[in-house]
Design goal:
5 strands, 195 residues, 13% strand, Alpha-Beta Plaits, alpha+beta, binds iron/sulfur cluster, 32% helix
């Protein structure tokens, strides 16, 4: 009886020591955990996180929108007028379209990165921002357009006016061409008969 009592004490102490061996071992190796969120983890080089669009370089080509498998990118463009100067991108491409809408519904985004590769000016990219949760889902609809609502309206109105003018000019030219007299081909005189 007494013997069993001491064996139990021995087993208890031994199992505690076995458990503590692992704990003591970790006291003398560098920690693998970090004090998140005070300390941020180092992300892999190609990590996919929140998207960003540099509108200064966007030419409105729609390639990113077409590549998106879940249709979470919506872009609208308006043709610039011959008198407009939209400048060039940092890659040297001349901008010809006003981008009047550029929305990304990041709540739908599956972070596939497919929109990033086709961009000819490399202006849509993944950032290292991964903490962007919201209480309101509407806040996950990102609007990247830099024009104000008023400017968008003005751009659209001017483009519509220009198109109307062009259509009127075309119609006038067509009417003029229709009204012009048709010139009959010159009649050939019959060859002279030998006397
Ligand atoms: S990462 Fe994928 S899902 Fe997200 S916007 Fe780009 S193409 Fe669409
Ligand atoms: S692919 Fe690039 S340049 Fe073209 S619309 Fe998208 S972000 Fe703009």
């Amino acid at each position: 009886m007494m013997r069993k009592y001491f064996i139990d004490i021995y087993k208890t102490i031994w199992s505690i020591l076995i458990g503590m061996r692992i704990t003591f071992g970790h006291l003398f190796v560098p920690a693998v955990t970090i004090q998140y969120p005070d300390v941020k983890p180092k992300l892999p080089e190609r990590a996919r996180n929140r998207l960003y669009v540099n509108m200064d370089d966007c030419i409105g080509c729609l390639q990113c929108e077409m590549a998106c498998p879940v249709n979470c990118i919506e872009i609208e463009t308006v043709k610039s007028l011959p008198t407009d100067d939209l400048g060039t991108t940092s890659t040297g491409q001349k901008k010809k379209l006003w981008v009047t809408k550029f929305d990304i519904d990041i709540a739908k985004c599956c972070f596939c990165d497919l929109c990033v590769y086709p961009c000819p000016t490399e202006c849509i990219k993944m950032t290292d921002v991964y903490e962007f949760s919201e209480f309101d889902r509407n806040n996950l609809l990102y609007n990247f357009v830099t024009l104000t609502k008023q400017e968008v309206e003005t751009v659209k109105a001017k483009a519509a006016e220009f198109e109307k003018e062009q259509a009127a000019k075309k119609a006038a030219a067509a009417a003029q061409a229709k009204a012009a007299p048709v010139v009959a081909p010159a009649q050939q005189s019959p060859p002279a008969q030998p006397s």
